[in-house]
Amino acid sequence: MMSQNNPPSSISMTDALRETLVIILAGGRGERLKQLTDAIAKPAVPFGGKFRIIDFALSNCVNSGLRRVGVLTQYNMHVLAQHVQAGWGTLRAEFGEFIQVWPAQQKKGSTDWYQGTADAVFQNLDLIVAQKPKYVIVLGGDHIYRQDYRTMLRDHINKGADVSVSCITASKEEAKAFGVMGVDGDDRIVDFVEKPANPPTLPGDPNSSLVSMGIYVFNTDVLVKQLTDDAETDASSHDFGKDLIPNMVPTLDVFAHRFSDSCVYSEGSKEAYWRDVGELDSYWSANMDLTAVTPTLDLYDRKWPIWTYHAQLPGAKFVFDDDERRGMAVDSVVSSGCVVSGSTVRRSLLFSGVRIHSYCNIEDSVLLNGAAVGRRCVLKKVIVAEGCEVPPGTVVGVNPEEDARYFHRTKGGVTLITDEDLAKLPKP
């Protein structure tokens, strides 16, 4: 049923895009990624060989024709800010286009940093209002997916919605970790609960639920009022999923938008690919997805490219071709600047500038930028941290009990290798 309060607008899609401001929430600590986020914010964590996680949200914006983007930062923002400036500073300011980092700042009358996702946007209301947008898209900077936001914005306008929430279908058990919505037959949200023990399910499907992706389209006047009211509510945790959206459902026109309708699919794929890479197992798994023969998320698909900034490096190099010492990689992604010297790499992803010395066996592993592996190492199902130097003869991923003595090992059996942990190993 179409909303009677907000009939469909006659605004053209071109005008709607021009009147839309995007806010990317990129200030999270990312503590579940352990040492990978000790010095950088989660959205700045490298992904996929040459990218950073935030590049997916930024690429979705640019590819969707959205040219006004504020990136809200807080923790460990330096690397993220440098990356946005270097890789995304090419829009034309004289045309009102920008991708800007908006760092957290303590303003007059406030001594607090961001208290929640809604508070982060509230503290930047003056910057938002100054842009005079008709619509505001709020999204996170820490997920891996390709989405045409134009489709979601068009859906929002056509339904006459006050707010639209992008969602995916998950099993009822998986849904317990997300914000979950109950909807009617028109996808109007009638219930929204954060991380429920007993999630509401889809009409006609008692085993599946709609879960929030943390992507919202707001009418600006609605957003301003709701954020202002929330800021004056002492009992609120000032979070979109916990407070703002649930409070809007009873009185406003809040609709679910199915990600399957706006996902940019790779050729031949039917899966609407979206991954939360906020902990080590999911981060490892999403990187491993890219090593498949035909990945569900196909980064070689030029119809919807993922853009980034990366250093200019020479091509990857494989050296030695002796029976006992052959440089090779199979079912793997090897980035520029890598040298694989007389070692075998299988089902692995090597980021830029990785060096692997001779007689090594690397399997099912992710090696981040600038990592170096000494001779005669065996590494299986590991993540090697950025710039980490693995000493010759190191064996990780063969004996789980031994690995757990010195390294962080996940429930999924992924071992994180850092210089600090390597220093704990017994000296030969």
TrEMBL record:
CDD domains registered for this protein in UniProt: ADP_Glucose_PP (cd02508), LbH_G1P_AT_C (cd04651)
Name of the protein in its database record: Glucose-1-phosphate adenylyltransferase
Residues covered by the Glucose-1-phosphate adenylyltransferase/Bifunctional protein GlmU-like C-terminal hexapeptide domain: 314-417
Ranges of residues in domain Nucleotidyl transferase: 22-291
Assembly and oligomerization: Homotetramer.
Keywords, in A-Z order: ATP-binding, Carbohydrate metabolism, Glycogen biosynthesis, Glycogen metabolism, Nucleotide-binding, Nucleotidyltransferase, Transferase
Keyword Kinase belongs to the record: no
SUPFAM superfamilies: Nucleotide-diphospho-sugar transferases (SSF53448), Trimeric LpxA-like enzymes (SSF51161)
Pathway(s) served: Glycan biosynthesis; glycogen biosynthesis
Name of encoding gene: glgC
Binding site for alpha-D-glucose 1-phosphate: 114, 179, 194-195, 212
Catalytic activity, reaction form: alpha-D-glucose 1-phosphate + ATP + H(+) = ADP-alpha-D-glucose + diphosphate
Listed EC numbers: 2.7.7.27
InterPro entries: ADP-Glc_PPase (IPR011831), ADP_Glu_pyroP_CS (IPR005836), GlgC_bac (IPR023049), GlmU/GlgC-like_hexapep (IPR056818), NTP_transferase_dom (IPR005835), Nucleotide-diphossugar_trans (IPR029044), Trimer_LpxA-like_sf (IPR011004)
GO biological process: glycogen biosynthetic process
Annotated site residues (Could play a key role in the communication between the regulatory and the substrate sites) in this chain: 74, 113
Molecular function terms from GO: ATP binding; glucose-1-phosphate adenylyltransferase activity
Family: Belongs to the bacterial/plant glucose-1-phosphate adenylyltransferase family.
The keyword Hydrolase belongs to this UniProt entry's keyword annotation: no
Known function: Involved in the biosynthesis of ADP-glucose, a building block required for the elongation reactions to produce glycogen. Catalyzes the reaction between ATP and alpha-D-glucose 1-phosphate (G1P) to produce pyrophosphate and ADP-Glc.
EC class of the enzyme, as a word: transferase
Pfam families per UniProt: Hexapep_GlmU, NTP_transferase
